[in-house]
Recover the amino acids of this structure.
């Protein structure tokens, strides 16, 4: 039917091409089927499932150009974009993990479409099945040990024994300065030695409770939380029925040790123990969090 004069013919615009972003893999069943509709993925996309050979992947559609090799490279170099991708990825994985065992995929795992996701599940079914069997009934706990020489220096010295101490003989300003520097260096050495000893004790106590351990690089700069230097950054795979026991074993371990503190985080989905690093059609997945 001809259009009235003065009104251009309306043409339906086709949707821009999209790719399938994969967040996690689990066993097919009610756990992920129930979780998926409640989750929101990247770019506010709806999370759905793609299944094959008894396995299910949580996926959502993302713009093909933005998540192509060049597009992902630009996003991963942009701190704001990277934080948004990491935050959304983590939220989807953790939400799914509350209801069932999942293998978190590495950040920025992208396939051309759901058909390729299903093909990947079929090709690696044996590998994924073995990983899921190993991780079922477990969660990840993160443990960081920090050395803070400034806090150690600010810690009050032990009280004197009996009677007042004799007055120290006067020294020159230069000699006093050198003594202060030597004292600071000694305090720093003591703090790092003490932190190393605490980290060793953490490993000894955790070994009796955890199934596995992964040592990550200590965090630095913006990734390091709080004061001090992160000297140990480790992840432990702990049975879910021993999580409280794990926390109790480490509680108070650094109490009374000047300049040393311990941070325990989790439980998390087992990022450090899910070696599901599928080869995708876009850029190789970037390293996540951990921790």
């Amino acid at each position: 039917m001809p259009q009235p004069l003065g009104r251009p013919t309306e043409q339906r615009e086709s949707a821009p091409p999209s790719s399938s972003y994969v967040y996690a893999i689990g066993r097919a069943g009610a756990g992920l089927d129930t979780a998926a509709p409640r989750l929101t993925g990247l770019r506010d996309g709806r999370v759905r499932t793609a299944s094959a050979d008894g396995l299910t992947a949580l996926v959502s559609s993302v713009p093909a150009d933005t998540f192509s090799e060049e597009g992902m490279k630009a996003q991963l170099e942009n701190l704001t974009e990277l934080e948004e991708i990491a935050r959304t990825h983590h939220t989807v994985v953790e939400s799914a993990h509350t209801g069932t065992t999942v293998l978190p995929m590495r950040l920025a795992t992208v396939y051309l479409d759901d058909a390729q996701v299903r093909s990947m599940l079929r090709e690696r079914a044996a590998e994924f099945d073995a990983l899921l069997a190993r991780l079922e009934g477990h969660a990840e706990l993160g443990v960081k040990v920090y050395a803070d020489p400034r806090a150690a220096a600010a810690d009050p010295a032990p009280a004197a024994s009996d009677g007042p101490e004799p007055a120290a003989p006067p020294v020159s300003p230069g000699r006093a300065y050198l003594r202060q520097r030597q004292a600071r260096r000694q305090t720093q050495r003591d703090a790092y030695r003490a932190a190393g000893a605490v980290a060793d004790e953490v490993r000894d106590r955790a070994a009796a409770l955890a199934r596995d351990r992964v040592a990550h690089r200590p965090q630095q700069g913006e990734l390091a939380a709080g004061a001090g230097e992160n000297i140990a950054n480790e992840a432990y795979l702990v049975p879910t029925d021993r999580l409280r026991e794990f926390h109790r074993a480490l509680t108070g371990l650094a109490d009374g040790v000047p300049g040393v503190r311990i941070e325990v985080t989790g439980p998390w989905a087992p990022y450090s123990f899910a070696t599901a690093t599928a080869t995708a059609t876009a850029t190789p997945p970037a390293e996540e969090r951990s921790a």
Remarks:
- The chain has two domains: 18-124, 139-157+170-271.
- Confidence is low (pLDDT under 50) at residues 1-12, 174-178, 276-291.
- DSSP finds eight helices and nine strands in the chain.
